[in-house]
Amino acid sequence: MEGSDxxxxxxxxxxxxGRLLDRHGAALELYAxxxxxxxxxxxxxxxxxxxxxxxxxxxxxxWLYRVVRNKALSASRSARRRRRxxxxxxxxxxxxFTPSPGNAVDAxxxxxxxxxxxxEQREVVVAHLWGGLTxxxxxxxxxxxxxxxxxxxxxxxxxxxxxxxxxCQKNE
Length: 172
Prior knowledge:
The chain is an all-alpha fold. It folds into 2 domains: about 1-90, Rna Polymerase Sigma Factor, Chain: A; about 105-165, Winged helix-like DNA-binding domain superfamily/Winged helix DNA-binding domain (Arc Repressor Mutant, subunit A). The protein is about 65% helix and about 0% strand. It is built from 8 helices and no strands. It has helices spanning about 5-10, 15-35, 40-50, 60-85, 105-115, 120-130, 135-140, 145-165.
C-alpha cells in the first residue's frame, strides 16, 4: 500500500518516517546513547517498528521515544551480559558533544558532568532539552508524573551548574 492508500488507512508512510528522522533522528540517537552503546541501531529499529504499525500512533514522537528507550535498555542488558562473559573490557563510548571553539563550557566537561547525573536525571534532561518532549511526555516515557519529571530536570540542572561552575539565568 503506497501513497494515498496508506495515508487513508492511517499507516505510517515513508514520508512521515523521513520527516521524523530528519527532525528528531539526532535527538533520538542522543537519547539512546545514554542507555546503550549502539544508539543508531536502536533508532533504526524503532523507525522500522513504526513502519510496521498497522496504524500510526496518535502521538508519534513520544511513542518513538518509548520504543527507542525500550530497545536501548534491551541492547544495554545484552551488552552487559556479553561483557560479563568476555575477558576484554568494553569498547570506547562515543562522546555526546562535539567541541566547538569559543564555547564557555568545553565538550569534555559537559559530557563528564552529564554522565555524572543519575540515569533518571540524565534521561529527563536529554529527552526534554534535545528531544523537545514536554514534561508530561517525559513523565510518560520514564513512568513518572510530569511534576516528578520536572523536579528531576530542575535537580539535574542544579547539579550541572554546580559541576560546571556555570550560573544560568532562568527564563522569565
